[in-house]
Model the fold of this input.
Amino acid sequence: MRYQSSYVRIALPKGRLLSATADLLDQVGLDFEDYDGKTRQYNLQSVRFPRVSARVFQEKDIAVQVAVGNYDLGICGLDWIEELRTRYPASAVVEVSRLDYGEGYIYLAASQETGLYDMDGLSSGRDNWRIVTEYANLAHTLTSNLRLKSFKIFPVWGAAEAYPPENADLVILWARNENEMRAQGLVPIMRLLSVDAFLIANRERLENKDLSEVLGCLSPAFVAKAQTLVQEKVEITRKPAISLSHWKERELRLALPDGHQKVPTAEFLQRAGLNVHGYCGRTVSRRLSSDLEWLGVKVIRPQDMPLQVANGNFDVAVTGRDWLLEHLYRFPSSPVMELLDLGFGAVRIVAALSREMAVDDIDGFRSLVQSGKLASPRVASEYTNIADRYLRDNHISSYRLIPTWGASEAFLPEDADLLIDNTQTGRTLAQHDLRIIDVLLKSTACLIGNKESLDSPGTKEKIERVVEALGGGLS
Amino acid sequence: MKNQRCKGMRDLLPRDMAGFRHVEDTFRACCLKCGYQEVRTPTLEYLHLFTAVGTLTPSMLSKVYSFLDWDGWSGERVVLRPDNTIPVARLYIDNMSEYKRARLFYVSNSFIFEETGKKDRERWQCGAESIGGTKLPADAEIISLAREVLHRLGLDTVTLQLSHAGLVKALIKELKLRPSEEAKVTSRILEGDWQALTEVKSARNELDRFLGPLLNLKGKSGGFLQNVKALSREASSSFKSSLDDFIETTTLLDGLKCSYEIDITAIRTFEYYTGICFRFMLNGEKLGGGGRYDNLMSLMSGNDTTACGFALYVDPLLKLLRWENEAKPGILIRGKQTTPEAVEACFGLAQALRNAEQTVLVDFGEREPCDYRWAISISQEDLPGFTVTDCREKREWNAASPGEVLSIVRG
Done:
């Protein structure tokens, strides 16, 4: 059931732009039932137009979905449009219009410890800038334009603000305003762009397909002046950022996960008798202290941990084995290794497809592809390296991998043919009419470490003490 | 199945390869005669080599094929080399810097993303780099070498266009812009957008006297630059010294009876040039170019070393060159049977003839023998020997041994 030409399909944002977008759609008479962020309903039908449907995505998926033609139209922030376009200038995304709302800016910011307050110090200053960002493509363009000679860009899934000053010098991140960044201990250097909401269209659809029902509704909200990538210096007030505790002075650096893994990890630590203060507070606190005075603790995304441990920014981290393997499949000689299976947070990484597809296993899927009935299958996954390896090992030819950032099950059947995703019980997959055809691996939470950290006797001894302490949580 | 080739990539068919080898062989022969030594750099290099100020422009950098290697967890990116001069400079710094003088050449591909996919994204170049030489003679040697290669390829009507990177940079400085504006104007000019200069210069009328002729006229001798010098008495000392440097080179080329056209806009894309820049044009097509890049080695953490070089672009050259039909093998041995004995007899004869430096193709009925000057059939078992046919003269002989075949073929 691929794209039906007479229907108009719109990709709508979750997250920061959801409520303003829902208000706008309501005002212009293009409202969708259940587009309110309260339900986990991803497929929406227009209340007024039977020909118009929508699907809810993470914002960073929307520009890609429209570019590849899965959706005719989309609404998302300019940051994700530029992130796509700066890397793929020929991508088939057209900005139809800026809409009259938006949220925040994309900033280049420095940790206070760099002593940077403006651009001049960047090009002429020190070498080896460590840049952490969710916007890797924007970062590469910026480093080219600034002519930085020596730099490393660490792409992260989120929580970029947690890295400076110990693990990064510069961050490129979204924030509502400069004060929000200063509160995180960051000094804003440059405003890269204003994150306004945009209505975007697939170029070919805009050229050939009648989208006038939707465009007509939305046109009162169009803002005349389109904005392109602008780089402007932030008004420098030389206001200091809020000082952060001296985390780097601790002898052993531990990373703990945020998000869904936070509660089970906190419970496990409690069982193990390893007290970490403030981990389960209502607000996200990125720097924590523990009873062990030599232990520095930071909270980051579990997906980002293996790369951070590989680079020596952390000695140990609690993450899932799925994310460790995802990293090792991409970088086989990485120095990251599993130190201890913590046993909780068990998930299976599975291959699943729509119940409508008459295929029982991966061999059947391969036959379908080989027969030409499903040429160039589209595979959606958060685990691009695990998925890539699985597809290669199973000789699935000419597949196209669609990287996703959560809610991957919503991609099938219209926007992908196969899903590689994690599941605890299989219930969510079943709710989306998906069937598991293979289990790639089973994953639980684990403690990972850097082999090179174990070379240092002092660090090794501390790592062994953490392993021993966490081992107590297993019984 | 069709269309499995990557967009922007090109297959070189036998005819293309014959042309390619002709260009390559001509180029190699010319370089070797001038004492240049061949080198080859790897396809992958670290991205940071190309990101330093004064190497590639941001626009070029946005089109490089860069990615994380299998051990790239540290974020260190690698590139498919987008240019050949920078890798050769790296090779010299890494391996040869104890030699104060090096003359190197290469035949290499480079990779640059081209959006439409209709033009080549992989490009082949024949290039030479003269490292550590005295400026004026080295410039003249490099230009002469490039011209000699083009001459040997039969391309005598190529126009040599000259510019001077130092002069262009001094020209931009004359505009006395703020650093950020200056960087923008420089980038635009390097991308070939000279409108940038005229837009700003209108604000400074006193520059018009020498900017006008430089931008709008095409001088054919050093005299033109002398005229510009006479008009630019108020210019900065760096402008004047670059102009003197330019005049010196053109005077030498005049003396060597080397014709050229002075076109200040004949400089593009690469930031690393510091002095004389040149390109070879034919019917609006750029066939190659080069120039002096005295700061590149030090920018790449090497010693302060003078250098200049050029590259000829193989792909446009191939389109221009006219080819005789591809060389056919001299002798065709036509096997009538494919029994082990018959095949062995054919191969035995072929080997004997090849040992005598003949080009031999063994064929079992797949091709017509008239494509070749000589065709040989192996006779039937009861009458051992060979039937030799001269397809051009329409004559036939019988031969009893490979030695006899050779005598007939050699006349």
